[in-house]
Structures are given as structure tokens and as C-alpha cells.
Specification:
Layout: E1 4-7, E2 13-16, H1 18-57, E3 73-80, E4 84-91, E5 97-100, E6 104-107, H2 113-127, E7 133-140, E8 143-148, E9 154-157, H3 164-170, E10 183-188, E11 194-199, H4 201-206, E12 221-224
Parallel strand pairs: 8-12
Antiparallel strand pairs: 1-2, 3-4, 3-7, 5-6, 8-9, 10-11, 10-12
């Protein structure tokens, strides 16, 4: 049987022998293997970099509904009359109040930015200024702290609602020697009274007890002790 011929890149012809067939098959195999390798690398990059970034953005909730609390620093600008402006940078006290010219102490805790703007507009327009335009901007948010056996302890901002389990996630999770069912939240109320809340975080995470998760409040200090077993 006469051998078949195929064209070469140089314009000539070559016989299609058994060794050539093996070479072509080998090249096709290599090309397929390279494609599979490239797809595998892309998949690994997506899993390790793209997806974590997407999940990391999830806790940043709609800040339009954020409720002002202690430790927040607010920039308040009031425009009235012709080219007149009254501006102050104020910190919300532990009692949830701010001090503003003309008004004195004003309750701010629990209000959204829009609600506080509306409240200040009403109070200023009622007795002091004509048609004031009030703008409130949050420069610093309230914080909570987590200490002890987590991978990245420190202070974290509360933007929107933040639970204990979410904070632990932000802090890189527990270390291998953490007492995960003996997590403690140290809380001080507006009157200076202190209390300790003990939470079985391991059970919440691994046994589906999400209803036992605790919503954190500004100034909370979370401690994760070391396990002795």
C-alpha cells in the first residue's frame, strides 16, 4: 500500500508514515494537555482571588440605613441666607449626643444621616435661621475590638449591622488554640454599666445556631481566650 503524503510548511511533501502519525498524535495530546492546564490555572485563580474578593465586599451593606452611634465623628454643614455657612466637626458622645451652635446638645444616636439632617433643619429653622440647608457626613464610624486567639486582632469599624460571627471572619478566624465556645463580649452602656456576654461561637458556626449570634454595639470588646484542652 502506497504511503499518503501531506504538505510541509516549506511547500514540499512528506510521506505520512507511522512515525509521523505518532508525532501528530503526540502534538495533539500536548496541545490538549496545555489547554486543560490553562483552564485549571484560571479556575484556581478564580477560586483563590476573584471569589474571596467578591465575598469580602458582601459585609459592606447599604449605608443609607446606617444608624449613628457613639464614637461617630460627623461633619455638619449648614447653609443659610446669602453665602453664609455654619460648619462643625463633632463627635457623638457615649450618651449618643452631639453639641452644635445655637442648639446645644442634640440627640443623634439611632438616627440615620437623612433623619439627623431633617431634625437639625427643623430645630434651626424653628427658632434661629431662615430656610437652613443642612448636610451631615460621617467621617469616622463606630468601632468594636476583638482580642485574643484570632488571626488578626484589633479594632474594626461598624458600618451597618455587624454580628459577632462576621467580626470573627473579618479578624481572619480563630487560631488553632482558641476556646471557640467561650467567646466573651464586654459591653458598656451609656450609663457606664458593664456586662459580659458569653457566646458559644463554635456551635453557632458548626451546628446551625444562627439565631444565637449576637449583634455588636459600638465600643464592644470581644475576647477569645486560649483553650486548655
Amino acid at each position: 500500500m502506497s504511503p499518503a503524503f501531506f504538505s510541509t510548511p516549506e511547500g514540499g511533501q512528506a510521506a505520512l508514515t507511522g512515525s509521523n502519525i505518532d508525532g501528530i498524535s503526540h502534538n495533539r495530546y500536548n496541545n490538549s494537555a496545555m489547554k486543560i492546564l490553562k483552564l485549571s490555572v484560571i479556575a484556581v485563580l478564580v477560586i483563590n482571588f476573584v471569589l474571596p474578593c467578591s465575598f469580602a465586599l458582601e459585609p459592606v451593606r447599604d449605608l443609607d440605613g446606617y444608624r449613628i452611634g457613639p464614637e461617630n465623628v460627623l461633619q455638619i454643614d449648614v447653609y443659610y441666607g446669602r453665602d453664609k455657612e455654619l460648619s462643625r466637626r463633632v463627635r457623638v458622645s457615649s450618651r449618643g449626643r452631639i453639641t452644635f451652635p445655637l442648639l446645644g446638645e442634640v440627640e443623634a444616636q439611632g438616627f440615620t444621616v437623612a433623619e439627623l439632617e431633617e431634625k437639625l433643619t427643623y430645630l434651626l429653622d424653628k427658632d434661629y435661621l431662615v430656610n437652613p440647608q443642612v448636610s451631615v457626613f460621617i467621617e469616622q464610624y463606630s468601632t468594636v475590638s476583638i482580642l485574643g486567639q484570632v488571626n488578626d486582632p484589633g479594632a474594626y469599624e461598624i458600618r451597618g449591622s455587624l454580628s459577632l460571627i462576621e467580626l470573627i471572619s473579618h479578624a481572619g478566624g480563630f487560631t488553632r488554640i482558641a476556646a471557640t465556645n467561650d467567646v466573651r463580649i464586654l459591653r458598656t452602656d451609656s450609663d457606664g454599666n458593664r456586662s459580659t456576654i458569653r457566646v458559644r461561637a463554635h456551635d453557632i458556626i458548626n451546628r446551625g445556631r444562627e439565631d444565637e449570634d449576637v449583634r455588636l454595639q459600638p465600643g464592644d470588646i470581644v475576647t477569645v481566650p486560649e483553650s486548655f484542652f
